[in-house]
Amino acid sequence: MSFFAAFIYRQFIHEPPVPIASFKDKTIIVTGASSGLGLEACRWMVRLGASQVILACRNVDKAEAAAKDIQATTLCSSDTLKVWHLDMSSYASVQVFSDRVKTELPRVDVFIANAGLGTRTFRMTEDNEETITTNLISTSLLAFLLHPKLRETATKYSTQTHFTVVGSELYEVAKFKESKAPAGQLFATLNDKSKANMFDRYNVSKLLVMFVVKQIALLSPISSSEVIVNCVAPGELHREIDNRAARIAIKLLARPTEVGARTLVHGVSVGPESHGQYVPDCKITPTAGLTKGEVGVELQGRVWVELRQKLEAIRPGVTSLS
Ligand SMILES: NC(=O)c1ccc[n+]([C@@H]2O[C@H](COP(=O)([O-])OP(=O)(O)OC[C@H]3O[C@@H](n4cnc5c(N)ncnc54)[C@H](OP(=O)(O)O)[C@@H]3O)[C@@H](O)[C@H]2O)c1
Prior knowledge:
The chain has 11 helices and 9 strands. The chain is an alpha/beta fold.
């Protein structure tokens, strides 16, 4: 299906089903849960019986207000929801957060890497342009740092655990001109402000994080860890659009956030067949765009070589999942 046909199908024909999976006894972490999809996904999982939900957010006051809102609408116990600080623009914060998860939580069943941003402004955080640091590097760092905890939970409680990344359908239209860079220069090129195409940057970040999901599945097959790693996409909600006319049009066409959030809940309920897969609209779907064919395999390899170096520089040994 073409990108446009898929858009029409998503926005007008198919509505993600109401989630019914049980999250009884489960401990859940959602990043960027202070608003939008993250907040609504937390609300769903509390309704579906989760025993502990951690809202991992950079703005603690905003997250506390979100937790109160969930409590008021679901009438859950105040102990069910906790707010923990996490700033994805800081590798130190990501590591402090992960260490806290490992030491303070007896189990982690579900991790939704939802925090993300799209911006036309070029700004550096840590060693990369901000979109790349937040949507790709910190998200990948969390996946590798917490994989052992998810594996431990799966073994200890004879279950399967999930690490689900919130991607975007827009990965498919990423142009990624920076991929023409010489070997070993992908990130250096993305970090060159004079060459940056910030209209494409968000799409590129979602393309690259899709490669990471596929790469983790290669490094840690489901048979060896019982940790399911997948990537969901929620359909178009109105907030990603800058252009005024497009914003008005999309507002008319867009899904309510609660409906988009069902796709996140589905991603963490779906079985091992989703490992390493793309699951937009609650359906496992072959990936397209620059992930396709030999070109996609080659590009994934190049991205991984450079990303691995970055992750190892932040926390040596983090990428060995065995
Ligand atoms: N909206 C759409 O149409 C759409 C479509 C496809 C995919 N998505 C993806 O869905 C996810 C959620 O987006 P949304 O639409 O729900 O938007 P949103 O309401 O803006 O939520 C984004 C969340 O990410 C957090 N965040 C951003 N930068 C962060 C950082 N450095 N550290 C920690 N948290 C950070 C935000 O925190 P603050 O509240 O502190 O800013 C916020 O809680 C994103 O990954 C987005 O790319 C959205």
